[in-house]
Every structure is written in C-alpha cells, then in structure tokens.
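Retro notes (design track)

What went well: tokenization of the new backbones is finally stable.
What didn't: we kept losing track of which sequence belonged to which structure.
Fix going forward: every design gets posted as structure first, then sequence, in one message. First example under the new rule, 482 residues:
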C-alpha cells in the first residue's frame, strides 16, 4: 500500500481493510505510516468502523418495514446514567422480522433509561408497563432503538419503561472492572499497554490489550490483586459529562485510539483510573464485590486477551470453589492442609502405579512363557490360540511383546473380564503380505461366536462380546482359518 500510494496519506478504506480483513491493529498501521512520514484518513476510517458496528448490531434482522410516526420525532433524551425507570411516550415504531422468521418491533421513545449497545457494552433489557418485554437496545445513526416482542394496544399513552436492574448492575460492574483492569495492566506490565477492544456483558468481561508476551502466573495474580484492592478501597465514581476533549487529553485522560470522540466528552474516574467512556458504571467500586481472571490468551501478534468475571458471578464462583475445597478436605480427611494431603495422595498414586507396572510386567513375562509353550507350527506359521484370565489391555501388550520374539506369528487371544468376552488377533506383517492373511477378517469370523463386534487393522484387530461360552469355540475354530 505504501509503495503504491501516490501521496503521503493513504485512504481510510485501506486502513480499514488492513484492520477488518487481516486483523492489523490500527495503531500499528499508524506507527508504520509515521515511520514512513505518512498518515491515513482517520475520518473515513471511523466512518467505515461505524458502518461495520451498525451492521453487526442488526445482523440478526432480516427485514424492516417503514417507520410509523406516533408523535413528532425528536432526539431521544437518555436518562439512564441516573434513572432505571421513566415515563415515556412513543415517537415512532416499525415492524421487523429476524432470520428465524420471528416478528418483533423497533420502538423509539422521547425519553429512556435504557442504555443502547455501544462502547463494547451490551444493551439494556427490561419491560414496558411491566408487561411487554424489551429484549435489547441498540443504536442506529445515534438514535436509541428498543427491540420489543410486541406493541401496546394504545400507542398514544404514556408508558412506564423499566430497566432490568440486576442485569444493568452486573454489566456496570463488569464495565467498571475493565477500567480497573486497564489500570492494573499498565501498573504491573508497563505504560506500553493500550486497550485494543473490549466486550462487557452481564455475565463476563473481555479485555484486549497490547503486550508482547504471555502473562506469567505471578503477573496475573498481581493484576487480579490490584483490581481487588481497588474494590476494597470503595472508590467513588467521579463523572464529568461535559468535559472538553482536548482538556481531557492534555490532562492525561485515557482515550481509545481510533475511537470517534466529539468536542464534548464524558470522563469516568475511579481513584487514579481516568478514561473517556460513555458506558454505565457502578457508583462505588465496592459494588463490584470481587474480580476473578478466568483466562489469558493471545488473539494476534502483540495482542493479548483477558476474560474475567465480577460481581455476583465472581462471588458465586468463589462459593463453588470453597464448596469444592470443603468436599476435597472431607475426602482427604485433612481440613487444615488439604493441598499437602492431595500431594501426598498424588505421590502415593505414583508409587502405586510403579508397583502396578512392575506387577503387570511380571504377569506379562509369565503369560509369555505360557504362550511360547503353546505355540504350534502349522504351514510354516507360529500359531497359538489361548484363553487367559486378565484385563483386555494385557492381551494387547502380550501380543506385541510376543511379536518381538516370534516371526510368522498367527496369534488369537481371548479373555473374560467383568462379564464380557474379549477377543484379539495379531498376525505378523510379513504374513499379511506374503499369505494375504487379515486380522480384521479373522475377528469378523470369530467375533460372531461371542455375539461381538470390533475392528482394527490387517495385522491387529479386536472385538468385544457378551457370550462368554463362545470363547471355547473360538479356540477350536481359529485353526480352521489358517
């Protein structure tokens, strides 16, 4: 793109294609361009980003009818930062059909407490007059649209709009937690950390950021502890809804690179965390209750992702962990130090496995002697059909041990174990080629005698059945297959 550009400014479309198609972070594009004394059209890039956001929000919608006016249209007054209930009138509505063929309605009110999906945060849900479900809230060209299951009979009435309080609190808790997480990452890892994206829902939060390597367990622990310390500090929300963008930037308020801001912006401050943000937040960090990192991973070169939970979800998680630990303590009979008890059990298990392995090797040696004593030479083959009393895994290990010692081996082994009949056939690979013998065919024939089925390869195959009496017949019939 740089080589083909005829000017020092590439189009916003080029920058958007690098971001949208190839996952190229926009700040990396800007950095490379600066190194080559070039820029890009930021206004066009932001416009394309907004088109993409609106397209993704309405991706589940198949078709919309024309708007129907109820009252004179005006810009909706958003009161959701302060209130969760409002008395509102319908301005306009339209019928919509989703990809499943379901009919719902998009409604615009003169006033609303419902936060519309944006800034990485999901939209609010709730009810109209405690009866009609408002299942989502989105924005289209800065207009707040409420997605509803149905319409009220009288559209001219004044309606009570109620936001789902618990869902809003959980979303707000997670949103504030992303701000504290951003501060924690910059504190623990360094000021090079920049937010590259986020997703805030009522269930969990996702935060993408720039960093050059995987975070160590110590780093993750320090980040998690940092956020929880801010929660314990009960930091009050300091909000300014009419800040000057330039003044904020001059004062060091963090703005998301590539995000579109107006001259007047809203700033959110919790202690030393100070960012531009239009989302909903808790009034005090104590409302978050707890913060837990669930995972950390890479999503592209130089970009990491943390997924975490807070609020009720985090408390529920901790309670489940405590319950699990309590159950473990009961099992190991040590409630004072279950970790040491578990390590002791682990070491005992390793010791037992070594002893078991030794016993199995001795058992294999014994069965191998028995097998060698029962070898018959039939048509230049080392033939053996033998019934043993052992686990099915022993049959396989015995077969491959015998194959190392004996050439031209045609081996059929049977065993009854825990109410089932097990059958196995091994044929030396040289015999498979030279005499056109096939262990799968042998298993298919003999497996019928134990009402079993199985499969495998030409040199090795197995079957399992229910008829234990058939094992004796297998020993007799196997000779006839040579």
């Amino acid at each position: 793109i740089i080589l083909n550009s005829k000017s020092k400014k590439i189009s916003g479309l080029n920058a958007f294609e690098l971001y949208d198609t190839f996952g190229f972070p926009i700040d990396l594009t800007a950095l490379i361009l600066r190194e080559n004394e070039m820029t890009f059209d930021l206004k066009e890039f932001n416009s394309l980003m907004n088109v993409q956001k609106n397209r993704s929000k309405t991706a589940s919608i198949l078709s919309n009818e024309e708007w129907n006016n109820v009252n004179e249209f005006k810009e909706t007054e958003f009161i959701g930062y302060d209130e969760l209930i409002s008395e509102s009138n319908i301005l306009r509505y339209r019928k919509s059909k989703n990809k499943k063929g379901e009919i719902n309605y998009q409604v615009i009110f003169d006033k609303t407490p419902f936060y519309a999906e944006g800034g990485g945060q999901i939209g609010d849900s709730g009810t109209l007059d405690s009866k009609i479900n408002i299942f989502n809230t989105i924005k289209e060209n800065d207009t707040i649209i409420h997605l509803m299951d149905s319409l009220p009979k009288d559209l001219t009435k004044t309606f009570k709009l109620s936001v789902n309080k618990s869902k809003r609190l959980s979303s707000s808790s997670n949103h504030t937690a992303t701000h504290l997480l951003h501060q924690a990452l910059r504190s623990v890892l360094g000021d090079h950390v920049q937010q590259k994206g986020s997703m805030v829902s009522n269930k969990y939060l996702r935060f993408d950021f720039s960093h050059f390597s995987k975070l160590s367990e110590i780093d993750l622990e320090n980040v998690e502890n940092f956020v929880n310390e801010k929660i314990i500090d009960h930091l009050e929300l300091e909000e300014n809804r009419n800040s000057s963008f330039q003044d904020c930037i001059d004062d060091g308020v963090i703005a998301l690179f590539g995000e579109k801001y107006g001259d007047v912006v809203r700033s959110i401050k919790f202690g030393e965390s100070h960012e531009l943000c239009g989302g909903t937040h808790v009034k005090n960090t104590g409302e978050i209750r707890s913060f837990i990192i669930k995972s950390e991973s890479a999503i592209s070169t130089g970009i990491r992702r943390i997924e975490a939970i807070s609020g009720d979800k985090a408390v529920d998680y901790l309670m489940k962990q405590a319950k699990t630990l309590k159950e473990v303590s009961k099992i190991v009979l040590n409630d004072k130090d279950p970790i040491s008890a578990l390590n002791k059990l682990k070491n005992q298990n390793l010791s037992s496995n070594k002893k078991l392995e030794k016993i199995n090797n001795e058992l294999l040696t014994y069965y191998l002697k028995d097998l060698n004593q029962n070898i018959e030479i039939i048509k230049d083959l080392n033939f053996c059909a033998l019934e043993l009393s052992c686990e099915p895994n022993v049959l396989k290990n015995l077969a491959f041990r015998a194959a190392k010692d004996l050439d031209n081996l045609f081996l059929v082994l049977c065993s009854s174990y825990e109410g089932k009949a097990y059958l196995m056939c091994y044929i030396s690979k040289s015999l498979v080629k030279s005499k056109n013998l096939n262990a799968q065919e042998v298993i298919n024939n003999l497996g019928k005698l134990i009402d079993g089925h199985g499969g495998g390869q030409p040199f090795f195959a197995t079957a399992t059945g229910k008829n234990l009496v058939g094992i004796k017949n297998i020993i007799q019939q196997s000779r006839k297959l040579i």
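Added context from the reviewer: The longest strand covers residues 85-98.
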